[in-house]
Design a protein that fits this description.
By secondary structure, this protein is α/β, with parallel strands linked by helices. The protein has eleven helices and eleven strands. The protein folds into two domains: about 190 residues, Rossmann fold (3-Layer(aba) Sandwich), CATH 3.40.50.450; about 120 residues, Phosphofructokinase domain (Rossmann fold). The strands form two sheets. The protein has a seven-stranded mixed beta sheet with strand order 3-2-1-4-5-10-11, with helices on both faces. The chain has a four-stranded parallel beta sheet with strand order 7-8-6-9, sandwiched between helices. The structure holds 6-O-phosphono-beta-D-fructofuranose (F6P).
């Protein structure tokens, strides 16, 4: 066998989230300290593999980043297998394969959400040794119970909703808050319940605004002077409106109650990861290094019932992890009077 150190590359792709640096550190330190591998950081997602923006991630560079938000590697939304939409005419997958070989990489760790795991799968099909790590605040990656970034985002959204309670109470208003999640309602569900939302609107549900209006009027009649409505950004709505403005204007029109809207936006993705996300990202990272050591490629690290394991990328690619409309948290909240906008 060739007597050289095994060399691995790490990239972060897609939208950023808290915990990316913790995952990079988890992979890198385990690979270097435990297995004596060489670790290379690839800048700006898959773009870095196309443009050869690569640097050695010495162990020193991995110190002091556990608690830092964002990604020291940078990220981009380049989708190598859909490159025509990214103004690149070249055969991007071939360039990536060529550069992977030229760099002498033995494995590539792709840290990202659904799109990234799909790309990772396609690169594995092209013969690259790929291991995926699922990240996203949206928690919508199939094949794992939870992604890192989600817990931090829920914490931020919960704090924001807590703050809206007091101002809603002072002014006796209906407060509508839009949270991220793309087509998944995980952040809305968790932050809505954690912060005691009165109405929680999930993209997965078929929402009837008359049901929402009725709930808000009943609350008002009972003497509850304010209400909190948490809405996931991906609910069905007209194209030219945000979820918050759609829901807010409907409520105002149907109830006459004074309504205000807040869109939480990128604050949910920024800043330091929660302790839980630091630990999850570290566990994922360390396990990715183990999978590389064992040669278990074409896989994504995942967590099931708090045990770190892995799933084949072929099972993950192209699927979404959405909220089951009969999720136990929905049923429980419903039985306590929370309205989900459904009949
Ligand atoms: O990271 C996931 C997410 O925050 C989604 O909830 C949101 O729709 C999307 O990214 C927006 O991100 P960007 O503007 O970076 O594409």
């Amino acid at each position: 066998m060739e007597n050289r150190k095994r060399r691995i590359g790490i990239l972060t792709a897609g939208g950023d989230c808290p915990g990316l640096n913790a995952a990079i550190r988890g992979v890198g330190k385990t690979a270097i300290v435990k297995y004596g591998m060489e670790v290379y950081g690839i800048s700006n997602g898959f773009s870095g593999l196309v443009d050869n923006e690569v640097f050695e991630l010495k162990e020193e560079l991995l110190s002091g980043i556990l608690t830092v938000g964002g990604t020291i590697l940078g990220t981009s939304r380049l989708k190598p297998f859909k490159h025509h939409s990214d103004d690149r005419d070249e055969d991007i997958p071939s360039i990536i394969k060529h550069n992977y070989e030229k760099l002498g990489l033995d494995a590539l760790v792709c840290i990202g959400g659904n799109g990234t795991q799909k790309t990772a799968y396609l690169l594995a099909q092209e013969g690259l040794n790929v291991v995926g790590i699922p990240k996203t605040i949206d928690n919508d990656v199939w094949g794992t119970d939870v992604t890192f970034g989600f817990d931090s985002a829920v914490g931020i959204a919960t704090e924001a909703i807590d703050r809206l309670h007091t101002t809603a109470n002072s002014h006796k208003r209906v407060m509508v808050i839009e949270v991220m999640g793309h087509n998944a309602g995980w952040i809305a569900l968790y932050s809505g319940l954690a912060a005691g939302g009165d109405v929680v609107l999930l993209p997965e549900n078929k929402i009837d605004m008359n049901v929402v209006a009725k709930t808000l009027m009943e609350r008002s009649t009972k003497g509850k002077q304010y209400s909190i409505v948490v809405v996931g950004e991906g609910i069905a709505k007209p194209k030219n409106q945000t979820a918050a403005s759609f829901v807010g204007s409907k409520i105002q029109k149907l109830t006459g109650l004074e309504t205000r809207e807040t869109i939480l936006g990128y604050i949910q993705r920024g800043g330091t990861p929660s302790p839980q996300d630091r630990i999850l990202a570290t566990r994922y990272g360390a396990h990715a290094a183990e999978l590389i050591h064992r040669g278990e490629f074409g896989t994504m690290v995942s967590i099931r019932d708090n045990a770190v394991t892995s799933v084949p990328l072929s099972e993950v690619a192209g699927k979404l992890h959405l909220v089951d409309t009969h999720h136990y948290m929905i049923e429980q909240a419903r039985s306590m009077g929370v309205c989900f906008g459904t009949k």
